[in-house]
Amino acid sequence: MERIQKVMAAAGVASRRASEKLIAAGRVQVNGETVTALGTKVGHRDKVEVDGVPIHREPHVYYLLNKPRGVISSAHDDKGRKTVVDILHEDEVEERIYPVGRLDYDTTGILLLTNDGALANKLMHPRFEVAKTYVAKVKGIVTNDELKRLRLGVRIDGRKTKPAKTRLKEVDRHQQTSLVQLTIHEGRYHQVKRMFEAVGHPVLKLHRETYGFLNLQGLQSGEFRELRPTEVTKLKQL
């Protein structure tokens, strides 16, 4: 027996948190009866439906996308904007997938998508601290002291960020901009942009280069590929 939200996430209906909202809204039925208790457990013989549509356990799939600018990191968008899931569905990916974490609308780079709710939840949990490397084009010339502040941690909403790695890649003194590589192990709201703002350098462009051991080698903007079985195994071991 498993909690119903875990079963829904594993079936690719939605993330576990989003599934909990569906349950609380009275949109989930078990064996014909509406359930709203999040602790409800179901077995393989139980018939689970969402809005009257039976859910089916799909085989788990794992995709790596080079997210382009101007696309929403979500399965759906109320404003009708293009989402990362739309990109994969346009290329005949049929599974109900969703992104692992988020990249801002104007941020590009590496993003995982899957219907494996259990793995997605683990990867997004703060205690697992998956390393993520970004390259930011920022206003102004970043100094060594400012890089040190980023490495040691800056305060966001009263809490200090965890130690990070930094590298100044390029400086354009004519345009008064800097290109900085930053590796963090957290995933707080708008964290990278807010870290640079904290040291006086607003972000102009932001790109995520790596996620854990994964990179974008061979993928142009908007392209994606399936993860290899060895990569999936390694992700589960992070």
Automatic annotation (TrEMBL):
* Annotated ranges, domain RNA-binding S4: 2-59
* Documented EC number(s): 5.4.99.-
Q: Which InterPro entries match?
A: PsdUridine_s_RsuA/RluB/E/F_cat, PsdUridine_synth_cat_dom_sf, PsdUridine_synth_RsuA/RluA, PsdUridine_synth_RsuA/RluB/E/F, PsdUridine_synth_RsuA/RluB_CS, RsuA_PseudoU_synthase, S4_RNA-bd, S4_RNA-bd_sf
Sorted alphabetically, which keywords does the UniProt record give?
A: Isomerase, RNA-binding
Question: What EC class is this?
Answer: isomerase
**Gene3D superfamilies per the record?**
Alpha-L RNA-binding motif, Pseudouridine synthase I, catalytic domain, N-terminal subdomain, RNA-binding S4 domain
Under the heading PANTHER family, the entry gives: PSEUDOURIDINE SYNTHASE FAMILY PROTEIN-RELATED (PTHR47683), RNA-BINDING S4 DOMAIN-CONTAINING PROTEIN (PTHR47683:SF2)
**Family the UniProt entry places it in:** Belongs to the pseudouridine synthase RsuA family.
NCBIfam families referenced in this protein's UniProt entry, alphabetically = pseudouridine synthase
Q: What is this protein called?
A: Pseudouridine synthase
